[in-house]
């Protein structure tokens, strides 16, 4: 069971999570990857088709012709008492950048399903770690959802104003906020957010759990275009993204191209070496 320890003065928290001990770590160099039924599968990977018994029991899934497209189960090495893993695809090597619209929609549908279900049990935060410097321990593409008690004081950011816009589609806008803490940091938010003043109660209703399939696919396609565009600038890169744990909705994607040092750790301040306006202009050239 997780233990929450507060700092009385700052109201910040530490989570003691002994369940994380023993968490496995592997890279694709450790696996034998072959092609089966058109899918790249690693025989040793617990997240690949045929190895379902190596994970905790399935909590949720979206299937096609009795085969799963995405699946969710409890994390064997949890941070909190409710900690789930969402497998993006049966394919060991394919991720969002190369997904079909069908696979994108399946992924964002299960995001919606898990957040809808877990929001009654606390504050769920959904996130994706990609690459070793971003915290990945197993390479098969996956996201995670952690539920925190309502009384925990979160330091997550509120929705930043839309400045330095890069691209939009029917429902969402992609931009580099002035408050970007990392080079090439990008945010995606729903266009409805711009209809209301800061603090308006209507903003509390703009969340992933309320999006329809058209909106979910629009969101997935914009994330996909963003990742492809960033690859053109950065090459192969590690990144994190997360969905705002409290409304209004935003998805924040952070390329892990810098390492925080003693100054940032000691002060809580961030140093960004790239002006967000410049980043946005660069991204406009590669994200279409």
TrEMBL record:
Transmembrane region(s)? none
Any one Pfam family match given in the protein's UniProt record, by short name: DUF4931_N
Domain annotation DUF4931: ranges: 42-148
PANTHER family (alphabetical) = ADP-GLUCOSE PHOSPHORYLASE (PTHR42763:SF2)
Q: What is this protein called?
A: DUF4931 domain-containing protein
Q: Which organism is it from?
A: Candidatus Roizmanbacteria bacterium RIFOXYA1_FULL_41_12
Q: What is the lineage of its organism?
A: Bacteria, Candidatus Roizmaniibacteriota
């Amino acid at each position: 069971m997780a233990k929450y320890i507060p700092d009385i003065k700052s109201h910040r928290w530490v989570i003691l999570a002994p369940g994380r001990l023993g968490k496995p770590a592997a890279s694709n160099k450790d696996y034998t990857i072959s092609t089966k039924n058109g899918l790249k599968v690693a025989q040793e990977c617990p997240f690949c088709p045929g190895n379902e018994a190596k994970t905790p029991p399935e909590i949720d899934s979206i299937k096609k012709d009795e085969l799963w497209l995405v699946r969710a189960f409890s994390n064997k090495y949890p941070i909190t008492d409710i900690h789930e893993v969402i497998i993006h695809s049966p394919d060991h090597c394919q991720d969002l950048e190369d997904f079909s619209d069908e696979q994108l929609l399946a992924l964002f549908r299960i995001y919606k399903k898990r957040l809808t279900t877990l929001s009654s049990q606390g504050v769920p935060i959904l996130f994706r770690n990609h690459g070793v410097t971003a915290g990945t321990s197993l390479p098969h593409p996956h996201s995670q959802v952690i539920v925190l008690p309502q009384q925990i004081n979160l330091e997550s950011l509120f929705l930043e104003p839309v400045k330095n816009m890069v691209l939009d589609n029917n429902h969402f806008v992609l931009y580099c906020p002035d408050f970007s803490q990392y080079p090439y940091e990008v945010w995606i938010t729903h266009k409805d957010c711009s209809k209301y003043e800061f603090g308006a109660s209507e903003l509390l209703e703009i969340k992933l759990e309320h999006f329809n399939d058209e909106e979910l696919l629009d969101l997935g396609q914009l994330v996909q275009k963003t990742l492809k565009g960033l690859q053109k600038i950065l090459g192969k890169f590690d990144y994190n993204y997360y969905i705002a744990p409290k409304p209004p909705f935003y998805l924040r994607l952070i390329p892990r191209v810098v390492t925080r040092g003693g100054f940032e750790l000691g002060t809580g301040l961030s140093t960004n070496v790239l002006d967000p306006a410049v980043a946005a202009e660069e991204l406009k050239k590669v994200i279409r």
